[in-house]
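In the design runs reported in the main text, the only information available to the sequence generator was the tokenized backbone. The following block is the verbatim input for one such run; it is reproduced so that readers can re-run the procedure and compare outputs position by position.
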């Protein structure tokens, strides 16, 4: 922990800046969650290899006391500790709990939830695998190191936590819930000073975000035990005028019309994780939209895509056809439905990439509704190299003069976005509305370079005409595929 050996006054100077930044940050609100200790012998953090060690995911196993053994540690000593996750060999229900993503774990420092600001990630560093909490907003800020494997093999390895770090259980209204914290009790200023600059502002100061009102949230205690089912958080915006849907889609293009308690609303997303809901809520409020978070039960009709076997060593691209099922997406000239265009373009992109030897996974391969979070997590779990979401744009029906291609990225997808954007414009004669940065959910919560393409306006006279021509739709798709292949150097 080299940073801890820095002079304390340096840390404290930085800390003052950090705390000033945090005063306006929404993380203070997360204090509805508390933590309680876990017997350290009952949990283990594991670096799990994906695609033969091309990279690693974090898995946390928890042993239910007095039940069948969940894992075995081999060759404990100074070097790496190999883990045999026995649960892969038997029905572990009731004996072992397994967390594999941010629904199951997050980082908490000195009583502050940092899950909105930091993503837990295992990265290879020379002959070691290191567990980091990596800033999700200010990606130039340094990550916080939490532990390491002290060596490397091709198998499952125990992450040995650095001094001061431990695992704890999240509690909510005093009840334990199925979420594990990697936590450090040192004062917030020191930990953040070692880890990161204030994460909210990048360039211009971020607006002060209001806290989530507690009244609309039903204070239903989560089901006890370790299964995170049941309670979801639905983020909605009541429809107040003809532009509400478009305004919300400027923040989150997957938003769609729904009815909640007889009221017409735009549904932005349905989340298992309260922090995800909070973050998207904050983005909506920052755009002056009257967002609400309401509790909800698990989606009845959402489909969860299944990861097929992936050939060893292949490049994996996830194509994400926007909307589907009960959500038609934008509706344009002549009743044209965005979801149908997205499907046509995506299927053609899939064909073209497969013909070039790329493994393509689709977040939906039929006309079904897929939850926003499920789309991002699918790509993360599959260990995809790239993620490309395909949409069509819309503005008012009274603006047929608005047409053109927009390609969005959030962070690491910029070069991919530029490659796709220019390849489409080379292939199709259409207006250029530019490569843009946006905080769309599927871009923020995918861990690989990710892009969202708005292939034209269903409300635009020129673009809608193009969408009615299957050959022209194919040219758009071929451009997207070419842009992906160029990016991959193929
Ligand atoms: Zn869309």
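Verbatim output:
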């Amino acid at each position: 922990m080299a940073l801890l050996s820095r002079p304390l006054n340096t840390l404290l100077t930085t800390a003052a800046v950090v705390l000033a930044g945090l005063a306006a940050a929404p993380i203070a609100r997360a204090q509805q969650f508390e933590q309680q200790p876990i017997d350290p012998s009952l949990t283990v953090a594991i670096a799990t290899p994906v695609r033969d060690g091309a990279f690693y995911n974090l898995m946390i196993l928890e042993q239910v006391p007095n039940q069948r053994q969940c894992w075995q540690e081999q060759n404990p000593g100074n070097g790496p500790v190999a883990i045999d996750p026995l649960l892969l060999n038997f029905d572990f229900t009731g004996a072992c709990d397994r967390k594999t993503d941010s629904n199951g774990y997050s980082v908490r420092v000195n009583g502050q939830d940092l899950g909105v600001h930091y993503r837990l990630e295992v990265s290879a560093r020379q002959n070691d695998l290191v567990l980091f909490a990596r800033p999700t907003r200010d990606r130039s800020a340094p990550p916080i190191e939490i532990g390491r494997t002290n060596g490397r093999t091709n198998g499952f390895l125990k992450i040995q936590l650095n001094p001061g770090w431990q695992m704890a259980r999240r509690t909510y209204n005093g009840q334990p819930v199925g979420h594990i914290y990697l936590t450090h009790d040192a004062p917030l200023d020191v930990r953040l000073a070692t880890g990161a600059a204030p994460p909210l502002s990048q360039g211009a100061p971020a607006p002060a975000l209001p806290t989530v009102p507690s009244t609309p949230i039903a204070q239903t205690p989560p089901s006890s035990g370790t299964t995170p089912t049941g309670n979801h958080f639905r983020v909605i915006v009541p429809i107040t005028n003809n532009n509400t849907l478009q305004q919300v889609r400027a923040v989150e293009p997957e938003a769609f019309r729904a009815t909640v308690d007889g009221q017409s609303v735009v549904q932005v997303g349905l989340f298992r994780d309260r922090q995800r809901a909070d973050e998207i809520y904050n983005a909506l409020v920052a755009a002056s939209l009257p967002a609400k978070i309401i509790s909800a039960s698990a989606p009845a009709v959402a489909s969860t895509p299944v990861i097929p076997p992936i050939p060893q060593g292949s490049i994996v691209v996830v194509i994400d056809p926007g909307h589907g099922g009960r959500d038609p997406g934008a509706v344009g000239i002549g009743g044209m439905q965005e979801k149908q265009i997205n499907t046509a373009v995506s299927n053609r992109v899939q064909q073209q990439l497969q013909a070039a030897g790329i493994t393509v996974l689709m977040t939906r391969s039929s006309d079904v509704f897929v939850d926003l979070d499920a789309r991002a997590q699918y790509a993360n779990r599959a260990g995809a190299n790239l993620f490309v979401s395909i949409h069509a744009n819309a503005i008012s029906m009274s603006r047929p003069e608005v047409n053109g291609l927009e390609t969005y990225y959030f962070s690491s997808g910029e070069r991919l976005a530029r490659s796709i954007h220019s390849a489409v414009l080379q292939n199709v004669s259409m207006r250029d509305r530019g490569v843009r940065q946006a905080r769309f959910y599927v871009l923020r919560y995918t861990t690989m370079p990710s892009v969202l393409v708005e292939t034209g306006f269903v409300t635009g006279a020129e673009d809608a005409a193009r969408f009615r021509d299957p050959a022209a739709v194919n040219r758009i798709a071929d451009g997207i595929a070419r842009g992906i292949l160029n990016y991959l150097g193929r």
